[in-house]
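Much of the work behind modern protein science is quiet bookkeeping, done one molecule at a time. The protein below has been through that process, and both of its lines are reproduced in full.
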Amino acid sequence: MKYSYVFFSIVFLLHIINTVFPSNIMTFSLGILACLVFVYSFIYANKLFKLLGASFFLIGFTLFWTTDLTFMQLIPMFADNLSMLTLLAVLPWMNSAVTAARFDKLMQNLLRGNVQHLGALYQRSTTAMMALTAFLNVSSATIAQDVLVDNLKPIHKKLANKFIMMITLRGYSLALPWSPLEVLLAMAIFITGVNYGTLLPWMIFITIIMYILDNVWGRWYFKKIPYPVQTDVHVSHKPIKKKLVQLISGLVGFLLCVILAGLFFEMEFIFIVTILVFPFATIWAFLLKRLRSYWTIGWNKWRNSMNGMHNFNVLFVTLAIFTGCLNASPALQFIQKPILYVADYPFLILMMIQLLFMVMSMFGVHPIATMGVLSGISAMLIDILNPLSLAIVLVIAGVSTVPVGTYGLVVTITSMSLRQSPYLITYYNLLYSFVFGFVGILIAYLLL
């Protein structure tokens, strides 16, 4: 397990080569290698992902016997989702550039700034969480929680915990719809074929709406509670402004690179992001004069991340088999029938998709797995909804479940950090998630 990253790296590198220079022999070989990745990772995956992976594999293999596919056609299917895994493999390098530049300290300074009440801190914390989550992902949640737990000690513990549970999950979710580093967004684009540049304005628009709604509510709800002044902490605003400019410049720069690459090159969005992450992060670290720290942090983060990819390896490889066999099986028609009955009511279909994500997340099913299931009927859904509307509802439905996913990663981290029930975290954020999902449904419906 210590050297798993070597094996995985070889597989992902071969996948990149095969994407640039397609070969039937290489595609078949990657199918065999992906199968080996699944078998090896299954040993080290946790129970939930073993259950999900085994279920998808068994259902997919059962469906295989109802199709006209041969084993020679089945083998390459194992590699169908290697693009998603390759993207996950390179993400730690961007995270490392942010850490090396000490942008994580930026959040600590922002959360320790002088504000008069918790309502003002709510707005500031949400903004900081959203900005850093775009690059740091889960790490931003742990940083924010550590600082807030320390700063809110003078406040009643139940109220402080409620504040942290809301800020952490909501600020985190607001960064996901538009970040090109978010796997749910990449997967929705992969399923629908929508151009990132076309989808991005709508993702930003929905994020702004939710940001305003949540911050107006948060400021009103918490403004009566005074925030303890940190008299022993002096925060200089000049370095903070400089760091903010650097962070925003990096974020905008990466977004522009992704959009321009998509315009000039006939490549999939996932592949574009994958090949841009490492060179962009390296150049960014160089410009920030943090290259040495970047290499040291990056190597350790990347290696540890690769060695810990077993859960996602199991999930994505088995999802590929499930989706491929479902699309070639007569069973697809039985699944399509209930949707065809309500084909004249697209708003109802959008609601059904949102509820499916919400219910599945509460039972511990990752939104990626739910999206994978829906990908099996994506062709029919696109005929009813259109690609852009489907992409919007898939992304927002998946992202809106993050604050209420009872067994999700961020909820679990928050639960362990605050020693609170994950169901309580779900309860506090349930209304927010429903509103978030409804805004996505409404925008998607208006674009039909």
Observations:
- The chain has a mean pLDDT of 86.
- The radius of gyration is 22 Å.
- The longest helix spans residues 237-264.
